[in-house]
């Protein structure tokens, strides 16, 4: 022990470890990767001299909440080589990004041979399992939009090719050769009911449920090919809430204008109403046609939700405690679970019946489904008519 030492103190210290290979690093301790220990420090604290008991080699020490001792850095790399990223899963590629010091463990190709319970298996979506395709023979199904090979995930044959793959009648969509129609339009930022917002450059526009998509130019314009018939168009962009709208695409094409809603706008509305908006869920917006809405209509959703806010005829946001339209064209629900199978049942006031409508205003059959996507609005146009 150092001569002249007259004071002994117990303080907290931490061992900084890598979560993967348990190598001890010099660094400021981190609650998720550190082992907290009590280290006996002996010394003249006033002079800054300490004598510490080493454990497992080098320690990063934060004494009494003061600055770390010399040798401790503020960050520790997750890896230095790809060997540090080994997750003990033979169905992933383990790679270290030397620039950032972070690991990635991406799934290998489905069908890659692996060891499953002591026998030969195959990798599917990054996990080793039984080879369900062993002994399976796939015959030609005569469909140019499928690959006549076995699907390792379920042992079935004839896997659909990628959406947009050229075929005799147009392009493949979900394994069916489909005539594609060119659709054009503009995506703008929704910031007011009365004034069209500025164009949204770099927004992604897709045909929901397919891999058909495109990106808007500097003017917010887009053009791409989609299947003829009913298409749910989905517009999205970073730092915004997306927008989903059901449209009919005729053989001669159509112009489809869409919107994205800035995060700041949604946050402002939620703040004004003292509401929490959950970005892991979607918002479903039954839009009651002002020309046919009398006020007092309601709507039921097939997924759990809580009531959110309405917009009155002047464009002001008002809280709705009973899910009533109250004469306003909008009725929005928050916190709707993500699903591809949402149904909306509008309920009219006495003497009126309401139903979801097509963009052309035609009533849609009961049970029409709508997709709900996280951090997106799904628009459901609704019309009401007098009961005969």
In short:
Helix content is 3%, strand content 44%. It is an all-beta fold and 388 residues long. The protein has 3 domains: 1-76, no CATH class; 179-262, Immunoglobulin-like, CATH 2.60.40.1120; 273-386, Immunoglobulin-like, CATH 2.60.40.
Mind explaining what this structure looks like?
This protein has 388 residues and is mostly beta strands. The protein has one helix and 31 strands. The chain has one helix spanning 263-272, and strands at 8-17, 24-25, 34-42, 51-52, 92-97, 102-107, 113-116, 119-124, 127-129, 146-150, 157-160, 166-167, 170-173, 176-178, 180-189, 204-207, 213-215, 221-227, 229-236, 240-249, 254-255, 258-262, 282-288, 298-301, 306-311, 317-319, 330-336, 339-347, 352-356, 369-372, 376-386. A hairpin with a 2-residue loop joins β13 and β14 (176-178). It is globular. The N and C termini lie far apart (100 Å).
Name the average pLDDT.
Answer: 76
CATH T-level topology of the largest domain = Immunoglobulin-like
Q: Based on helices, strands and strand pairing, what is the structural class?
A: mainly beta
Beta strand count: 31
How does CATH name the architecture of the largest domain?
Sandwich
Regions with little confidence, pLDDT below 50 for 5+ residues: 1-74, 319-326
Please, how many domains?
3
- Give the C-alpha Rg: 30 Å
Strand content: 35-45%
Number of separate helices: 1
Q: Can you tell me the CATH class of the largest domain? A: Mainly Beta
Q: How would you sum up the global shape?
A: globular
State the helical fraction.
Answer: under 10%
Q: What is the CA–CA distance across the termini?
A: 100 Å
Largest sheet: 14 strands, mixed
